[in-house]
From TrEMBL:
Keywords: ATP-binding, Helicase, Hydrolase, Nucleotide-binding. Residues 35-206 form the Helicase ATP-binding domain. It comes from Reinekea forsetii. This is ATP-dependent 23S rRNA helicase DbpA. GO terms for cellular component: cytosol. Residues 4-32 form the DEAD-box RNA helicase Q domain. NCBIfam families: PRK11776.1. Belongs to the DEAD box helicase family. Coiled coil: none annotated. A motif (Q motif) lies at residues 4-32. GO terms for molecular function: ATP binding; hydrolase activity; nucleic acid binding; RNA helicase activity. The keyword ATP-binding applies. Transmembrane segments: none annotated.
C-alpha cells in the first residue's frame, strides 16, 4: 500500500519546499490520518508513541495556521520534560525554517527564570514548554495567552503521570475557548478521556496501527495442590516470565498478606493491598506500584476496584475467582494499549468446576500448562527500575509538580527522563526516579529548596 505524499496536503509553498529539502516525501500513519483533520481546524486526539512522527503532524499544523506578521503568541505546546520540549522546539524550527522571522521560545523548569523573562519581553509566535514553568509565568503575569489559537498537549499521559493536572488546568483556563486543541498520548486511559471531554470540542480520535491492534491476552492455567504448591508455582512463573509489573489476585485479605510476606522475605519487590490498610498506607502502596518502584501487587478484588494502572504485564489468579465476570475483569487489566498481556490462573481439583464455568475457547483443564522447571527458582527476583522518594510537603504547603521537577533537574541535575510519576497529596508528595540515580535525587532535594523552603525527604525502602 502506497504511503500518502506531503505534496497532497496543499501546505504553504514555504513549508512544501522546505519538506522537500529535508527529504520528507511520504507521511507516517499518524501524519496521514491526523494532518488533513488538523488542517481543517478540527480538534484531534492522536494515540501514538514516541517515534511515530506526531511532532511533524502538529508542527506542520501550527505552522500552516501561523500568521508570522502578527507578532503574538499564537501556539502553545506543552510537554512533560525539558528534553522533549527542547526536541519539539528544534523540530518546529526545522520544519518552519522556510518561513522568515518565526520566533519559537522554550519555557522549561530547571532553567534560570530571569533570561526567560527577557525573552518573553521581546515576544514570540510559538511557546513550547513544561506545564510547571509555563504555569509559573502565567501566574506571575509574564506570559499572556489571550492570542493563542492552537493548544497542543504532547505526551499528555506522561504529564498527568508526573502530577501536572493542576498546572494544566490553570494554563488551559487562560487560553481562549475559541481555539483548536490537539492531544497526543501513548495511552488513552480514563484520565485522558476525562481531560479530553472537558477541554476539546468534538475531537476526532486517531489511532496508529501500533496502538489499535486487538488486545492480545494469553491465558495460562496451572494445576496445583495446596497453598505451598501455589506459592511454589507463583515463584516459578515469575522466574520464567519476568514480568515488570504484576497483580496477584487473592480471594481473602489474610491470603494477600501471606503471599506478600512470602515473596518479600525471598527478595521480591512485593506489597499487599486490602481493605484493612489505612488511607495513607493504601496511597503509598498504589503510588509505588503505579510508578513502577514496586513490581508485584497482591490484592483482593475489592481493594483493586477502580485502579487505573497502565502497562500491566501480567495478572496472576492465585485462586480462581468465584464469579466468571470477576475473572474477566481481573484478566482484562493486562494487555492494554495494544500491548500483549499474560494472565496465569492456578486451580486445584476442588476448583475445577469454576474453571469449567469460565466458558473459554480453550479447555483450561485439559490444556493446563506444564509448570516451569525448578531451575527458574534460581532466577533472581526482578529489581524495579524506579525508586520512590517521599517529600514531607504537599498541596497544603503549595508544593507543585514543577517545583519537584525543577529541584531534581536544575543546575546540571538529573535528566528529565530519569524522573517518573509525581503524586502530590495534602501534606506529602511522592516522586519516582530511576533507581541508579536515587541517591543523587535524594541529595538534590535535601540540599536544595522547594518553594524557598527545605523539606524532609526520604527514600521508601522495599
Amino acid at each position: 500500500m502506497n504511503q500518502p505524499l506531503f505534496s497532497t496536503l496543499k501546505l504553504k509553498p514555504e513549508l512544501e519546499s522546505n519538506l522537500e529539502s529535508l527529504g520528507f516525501k511520504t507521511m507516517t500513519p499518524i501524519q496521514a490520518q491526523s494532518l488533513p483533520l488538523i488542517l481543517k481546524n478540527q480538534d484531534v486526539i492522536g494515540q501514538a508513541k514516541t517515534g511515530s512522527g506526531k511532532t511533524a503532524a502538529f508542527g506542520l499544523g501550527l505552522l500552516q495556521k501561523l500568521d508570522v506578521k502578527r507578532f503574538r503568541i499564537q501556539s502553545l505546546v506543552l510537554c512533560p520534560t525539558r528534553e522533549l520540549a527542547d526536541q519539539v522546539a528544534n523540530d518546529i524550527r526545522r520544519l518552519g525554517r522556510g518561513i522568515h522571522n518565526i520566533k519559537v521560545l522554550t519555557l522549561c523548569g530547571g532553567m534560570p527564570f530571569g533570561p526567560q523573562l527577557g525573552s518573553l519581553e521581546h515576544g514570540a509566535h510559538i511557546i513550547v514548554g513544561t506545564p510547571g514553568r509555563v504555569e509559573e509565568h502565567v501566574r506571575k503575569g509574564s506570559l499572556r495567552l489571550e492570542d493563542v489559537n492552537m493548544l497542543v498537549l504532547d505526551e499528555a499521559d506522561r504529564m498527568l503521570d508526573m502530577g501536572f493536572q493542576e498546572a494544566l488546568d490553570a494554563i488551559i483556563g487562560e487560553v481562549p475557548d475559541q481555539r483548536q486543541t490537539l492531544l497526543f498520548s501513548a495511552t488513552f486511559a480514563q484520565q485522558i478521556k476525562k481531560i479530553a471531554a472537558r477541554i476539546m470540542i468534538s475531537p476526532q480520535m486517531i489511532e496508529v496501527a501500533s496502538t489499535h491492534d486487538e488486545l492480545t491476552i494469553e491465558q495460562k492455567f496451572f494445576q496445583v495442590t495446596d497453598h505451598d504448591d501455589r506459592l511454589l508455582v507463583l515463584k516459578l512463573v515469575l522466574g520464567r516470565y519476568q514480568p515488570e509489573s504484576t497483580i496477584v489476585f487473592c480471594n481473602t485479605k489474610k491470603e494477600t498478606d501471606e503471599v506478600a510476606d512470602a515473596l518479600f522475605s525471598q527478595g521480591y519487590s512485593a506489597t499487599a493491598l486490602h481493605g484493612d490498610l489505612e488511607q495513607w498506607q493504601r496511597d503509598q502502596v498504589l503510588v509505588r506500584f503505579a510508578n513502577k518502584s514496586t513490581s508485584i501487587l497482591i490484592a483482593t478484588d475489592v481493594a483493586a476496584r477502580g485502579l487505573d494502572i497502565d502497562s500491566l504485564d501480567a495478572v496472576v489468579n492465585f485462586h480462581i475467582a468465584r464469579e466468571r465476570e470477576v475473572h474477566t475483569h481481573r484478566v482484562g487489566r493486562t494487555g492494554r494499549a495494544g500491548s500483549k498481556g499474560l494472565a496465569m490462573s492456578f486451580f486445584n481439583a476442588q476448583e475445577a468446576h469454576r474453571v469449567a464455568l469460565l466458558d473459554l475457547e480453550i479447555d483450561p483443564i485439559a490444556d493446563a500448562e506444564a509448570r516451569p522447571g525448578a531451575d527458574y527458582l534460581e532466577v533472581a527476583a526482578m529489581v524495579p527500575k524506579m525508586s520512590t522518594l517521599q517529600i514531607d510537603g504537599g498541596k497544603k504547603q503549595k508544593v507543585r509538580a514543577g517545583d519537584i521537577l525543577g529541584a531534581l533537574t536544575g543546575n546540571d541535575g538529573l535528566a528529565g527522563t530519569d524522573v517518573g510519576k509525581i503524586h502530590i497529596f495534602d501534606n506529602c508528595a511522592y516522586v519516582a526516579v530511576r533507581r541508579k540515580v536515587a541517591g543523587q535525587a535524594l541529595q538534590s532535594i535535601t540540599d536544595g529548596k522547594l518553594k524557598g523552603r527545605s523539606f524532609r525527604v526520604r527514600a521508601i525502602k522495599g
